[in-house]
Design brief:
The complex is a heterodimer of chains A (327) and B (281). With 327 residues, chain A is α/β, with parallel strands linked by helices. Chain A is 41% helix and 15% strand. Chain A has 2 domains: 199 residues, Periplasmic binding protein-like II (D-Maltodextrin-Binding Protein, domain 2, 3-Layer(aba) Sandwich), CATH 3.40.190; 100 residues, 3-Layer(aba) Sandwich (D-Maltodextrin-Binding Protein, domain 2), CATH 3.40.190. In chain A, the strands form 2 sheets. Chain A has a 5-stranded mixed sheet with strand order 2-1-3-10-4, sandwiched between helices. The relative contact order of chain A is 0.20. Chain B is 81% helix and 1% strand. In chain B, α1 packs antiparallel against α2, α3 crosses α11 and α10 runs antiparallel to α11. Chain B starts with a helix and ends in a 9-residue tail after the last helix. The relative contact order of chain B is 0.11. The chains are: A alpha/beta (327), B mainly alpha (281). Chains A and B meet through α4, α5 and β7 of A and α6, β1 and α10 of B.
Chain lengths: 327, 281
């Protein structure tokens, strides 16, 4: 009897550390979809558990501004695009990039071919749609570099605020709309438009692309060594999730679907999205490429009279977490 | 901490001053009657300012009123253009179309009883449609301009105005209608000389309700697709860009416009329905 009690308490002693997992809350930039597959894969395949982390993934949406959630303490780390995060940093909320899973971006402009637009020089006088909420910066930056006014004046472009669908293009309310290579472009194709009827302009082809999904935290959180350690483990497990998702896109899409609480996503769309996302995460081990960062900053600051950010950001990124994670 | 203490002291001081004023012998004079609510408002703003600064609340959560005022003063041209787009082009046109069609429909419905029994439930259903559902559909039908916002406002404003006007048209007593008959008045003369004036208190009631709904409808409709102008556009874009002081400035401009419109209608009401018991001082 005594031996059994001793054995039981010894086992309980070994089990105790497993209960003391560290909690991490991640705020996504948008709703649950394959754009964030790496994190869901890490959750589902137990990579976070192996790092002793209890991760809660909060989906975003039209009404959620990830920096606001971060500021309010609702999340420890957020997924956000670099222009939005740098603008927020300049606006008074110091956020710092700790990892960059997306090496390249999928932002494009999709136009009807019959409008006769063949290149950026043809944009003047046209109606172009863009979402706002932090996604308008690349477009305004590009127009500024081309010298095309965006305030609706003569010879400029008329900006339309598009909702989160492709109706403005389909209904011909806009000549061009902003699309992601992995999402809205395929919605246009699904709506019955053939690829030959559409001409796309990828921001990266014109060297006006910016870094997209990255992991950002509040600067003051990095002063806590325990937090830094938690983030390093989180980044390590997340990057494992991303690499697994790249190699197993269909299974990753199914994991995302299993975690989609809204039930709004479809299998075909997610599998296709995962295939496109894999092209964007390819070649990244999570470490922010300094040259790519400088290019993004240069693009954002060259906005003429209306730059996205007016001053060189200092301390907007750190390799400390990724160094710890990948050693 | 000093700022929080300051906020508490200011509040107690203002409260004491207001209590002394309202219990003193000047309590019913016009200057005091204006000063007391004004002091209350100023106290609320002071407490907001001092608490937000004292607790160092991040600006992206709640900015202090002084920062909002600075942003407002600095963005007057932008906000004026937004107001023209939302209020004058969207809300007012929808308000005019909706109320005019509601009055016409009310006269028709009053004339033919079977229409009343058929159309009022349909109007009720239209008013109950959630505007976050109808706004995207109307934007798809009418485009991104002010026309779709006016359409949303018409949907929201039509039923309250209809119901109020129908109730007002029925508010004449048998004695009054008989008197018109003894004067040899036909249907149209009775309508324009007795029943519509008698319905005015109800109609103004409907107009006041409709004016608040009109601005809400126009602003919410802009969340779902708009050109790059408008109070609703400004609120949601500034919120997305975390410029909360601009959000509050736009909210303030919209509220002032709505208050002025309500005040205008109330003033018209006092002029047109001076004979009604509700207008007695």
């Amino acid at each position: 009897m005594k031996k059994m009690i001793l054995a039981a308490s010894a086992l309980a002693g070994f089990a105790a550390p497993a209960f003391a997992q560290d909690a991490v809350t991640l705020q996504l930039k948008w709703v649950t979809q394959a754009q964030f597959a790496g994190y869901y894969v890490a959750l589902e395949n137990g990579y976070y558990e192996e790092e002793n982390l209890d991760v809660t993934i909060l989906p975003g949406g039209p009404d959620v501004a990830p920096p606001q959630v971060l500021a309010g303490g609702g999340a420890d780390v957020m997924v956000d695009w670099m222009p939005s995060a740098l603008a927020v940093r300049e606006g008074g909320l110091p956020v710092v990039n700790i990892a960059q899973p997306f090496a390249s971006g999928g932002l494009m402009l999709a136009c009807w071919k019959d409008t006769g637009i063949e290149g950026p020089e043809d944009f003047a006088g046209r109606t172009i749609g863009v979402w706002f909420g932090g996604n308008e910066y690349p477009l305004f930056s590009w127009m500024s570099q081309l010298g095309i006014a965006t305030d609706g004046s003569e010879g400029g472009v008329t900006i339309l605020r598009q909702g989160f669908n492709v109706d403005p293009l389909i209904q011909r309310q806009a000549d061009c709309i902003s699309v992601m290579s992995y999402n809205e472009y395929w919605q246009i194709i699904d709506a019955g438009v053939t690829p030959e009827e559409i001409v796309t302009f990828s921001y990266s082809d014109f060297d006006v692309d910016v870094l997209e999904d990255g992991l950002w935290v509040k600067e003051e959180s990095l002063e806590d060594p325990a937090f830094v350690d938690r983030m390093a483990r989180f980044v390590r497990a997340s990057m494992r999730g991303w690499k697994w998702a790249e190699e197993n896109p269909s299974e990753a899409a199914m994991i995302v679907l299993d975690n989609d609480e809204t039930g709004a996503q479809t299998e075909a769309h997610q599998i296709r999205m995962m295939g496109e996302i894999a092209k964007l995460t390819a070649g990244s081990d999570g470490v922010l490429d300094e040259a790519a960062y400088e290019r993004t900053v240069a693009t954002l600051m060259s906005g003429g009279s209306d730059p996205v950010i007016s001053a060189m950001p200092e301390g907007a990124w750190t390799h400390a977490i990724t160094d710890l994670a990948l050693q | 901490m000093n700022l929080i203490a300051g906020a508490g002291l200011f509040w107690l001081g203002a409260w004491a001053l207001n209590a002394w004023l309202t219990n003193g012998k000047w309590a019913n004079t016009v200057p005091v009657r204006i000063f007391v609510p004004l002091l209350f408002g100023v106290t609320l703003l002071m407490i907001w300012e001092l608490v937000v600064r004292g607790l160092q609340v991040p600006v992206v959560i709640l900015p202090p009123p002084s920062q909002i005022a600075v942003t407002l003063m600095g963005s007057l041209p932008i906000l004026w253009a937004d107001l023209v787009q939302t209020f004058f082009k969207g809300a007012l046109s929808g308000f005019a179309i909706g109320c005019a069609s509601a009055v016409v429909m009310a006269v028709v419905v009053d004339r033919y009883d079977y229409l009343r029994r058929g159309l009022l439930p349909v109007g009720n259903f239209m008013a109950a449609l959630p505007i976050v559902g109808t706004a995207p559909i109307l934007v798809m039908w009418f485009g991104f301009g002010w026309q779709s916002k006016a359409a949303v406002v018409v949907l929201m404003v039509f039923f309250p105005m209809l119901v109020n006007t129908v109730a007002g048209l029925r508010d004449t007593s048998v004695m009054q209608r008989d008197l018109m008959r003894t004067y040899g008045a036909d249907y149209w003369q009775t309508l324009f000389k007795l029943r519509l004036p008698a319905a005015l208190p109800f109609m103004f009631n409907g107009l006041k309700i409709a004016s608040t709904l009109a601005l809400i409808g126009a602003i919410v409709a802009e969340f779902f697709g708009s050109p790059t102008q408008g109070i609703g556009f400004r609120i949601s874009v500034a919120n997305g860009g975390l410029a909360l002081d601009m959000v509050w400035s736009a909210i303030l401009v919209g509220s002032i416009a709505a208050c002025l419109m309500y005040g205008l209608i109330a003033g018209l009401e006092r002029w047109a329905t001076f004979w009604h018991p509700s207008q007695r001082r």
